[in-house]
Each structure stands twice: as C-alpha cells, then as structure tokens.
Specification:
Blueprint lengths: L14 E6 L5 E6 L4 E7 L5 E8 L6 E4 L6 E5 L4 E7 L6 E7 L7 E3 L5 E5 L5 E6 L12 E4 L9 E4 L5 E6 L2 E7 L6 E8 L13
Antiparallel strand pairs: 1-2, 2-3, 3-4, 5-6, 6-7, 7-8, 9-10, 10-11, 11-12, 13-14, 14-15, 15-16
Length: 207
Amino acid sequence: STTPVPAHSLALAPVSTITFEPTGRFVYFTHSSAAYVTQYELMADGHLRFIGVAPIDTPAFAAAMHPEGRAYYATNPGTNRIFLYTPDAVSGGLRPSANYGYQPVGHIAVSADGKFLYVGNPGAAAIRRYVIGPYGGISPTGATTTTLQGGSVANPRIRGDPSNLYLYALTGDRLETYAIQQATGDLDFVSSTPVGNPATFALSNAR
C-alpha cells in the first residue's frame, strides 16, 4: 500500500532549523546542505506559501528570531560567523544586514526581552553573551563568557525562558539552569538536572 502525500507537503533541502516570526505569519528554514534560508508565509488554512531565499555563505547550523521580529540570526560554525538579517514586516522577506566573526559559534538564543544574544561555543563548554543594539546588531564590546558546569561538553543547546528569568543549556545528559541578571544579561548557575541523553529540548510558553 502507499501513503497519500498531504496536499500542501513541501520538498525542501534537509532542514537544520525551523523558526517562526513572532506574529506567526512567517516561518524560516535553514538547511544542513544548502547555503540559504528558505522563507514562507503561513496561510490561514495552515499551508506555506513560498516567499524566497536569503543567502548565507555556507549551510547554517542554528538560528533564532528577535522577540520583536526586528532581527533574525543564523550561525555557521564552519566559518565562525553570526549572520544578521532584517525581516520585512509586510512581506516576511529577510534582508542580509551584517555578519560577525568574533568567536567560535554554535547554538544560539535571544533573551525574551530582546536585549541579549547568547551563543554556544562548539569548541568549549561555554556560552558567549552579546548586547543587542536597536537594529539587531551586536558588538564584542562588553561581551562576557559563562563556562558551563558540564565542562567536557562543547556546543550546548541553549533556550531562553519566555519569562526572561532563566537560560537553559543541554550539556549531554544534563540540563543546566542559569539565572539571567536582568540588567546585564550575565548568567548565574542555579542547578544541573539529569535528563538522560536527549538530542534537543523545548520550553513551554506558559509558567
């Protein structure tokens, strides 16, 4: 027997991340084997309408959206760069704005208040914190590094708490919790919880 193909299924290059724009109108895909970000509009009936692609130098590894929709970030460990795109609020298209190569880069997260960008280090068990400017740009000035308790696990997967109180880092078989200092965005270790050995994790929007 055969399985029917859904009416609105899409043929995509292998997907590495899926990111929704804050209003839910647009969705963006990065790909593990294609050097671009694919952009779609989410229609009322749930299917995706293709908008276009935004270039990146080599396939992106991770991505994050600013909570106000003013910036989209993608990381590329192969070139150790963070790519900044400006989303168009009307069309949903991404305009390449800048790219940065300050430190090795891996997984990425934006604080819920939109003030700080957190970047995992693929070569060490550490997270780098950058201050986000008014147009989404970042600077190495004043950046800080937090060394994780799981010192042997490089490139942690990281997620910010929707309440902006905590940042979570998956370091192999443990989920580490860090309190976010509201004024500076710096991280204070809270706890480390054994969670088996998951590939990734997600946080609820409700507390």
